[in-house]
What we know:
The chain is mainly alpha-helical. It contains five helices and two strands. It has a single domain, classed as Up-down Bundle (Four Helix Bundle (Hemerythrin (Met), subunit A)), CATH 1.20.120.450. Strand 1 and strand 2 form a beta hairpin.
Amino acid sequence: MNPEQAAFVAQMFTQGLDREYAITRRILAAVPEDNKHYRPDENSRTAFALASHIAASDVWFLNGIAKGEFVREGTKEFGSVAEIVAYYDKEFPAALAKVRALPAEKLAANISFAIFNMPAVAYLGFVNNHSIHHRGQLAVYLRPMGAKVPAIYGGSFDEPMKMPAAAN
């Protein structure tokens, strides 16, 4: 991938990640503190562990892209759902801004991660897909936990789509 292509892909993905951030934040914030340890099955993560993973991983991936390497870190510990949301509100936009500020040459440079060795910009797709995957899991937990399900890509039972008023 050449730098010009990488810059185009980065612009496309970062715009999408801005939209996904708002949706993910609403799902994280919907987790009820008093039922955050809910899990639908003994083999599933708790809602709190899943919310923690989503917030920390999104930021970790973006920071890794910005650094040009993915460095293993310890697990990010949170004490409450509000702490997760506050972390996500502060760190996700900051990490995304670092990626947006990268020169095109750095976006096109390869980064190794697990079995992959791809241009840095390609990992923006990982951030997107990984977050959506786990956000979907967490959204399914909400109603059984007694929470309302926010609208995601359209209305939900709890937040129906608002249709624009018809023009006269």
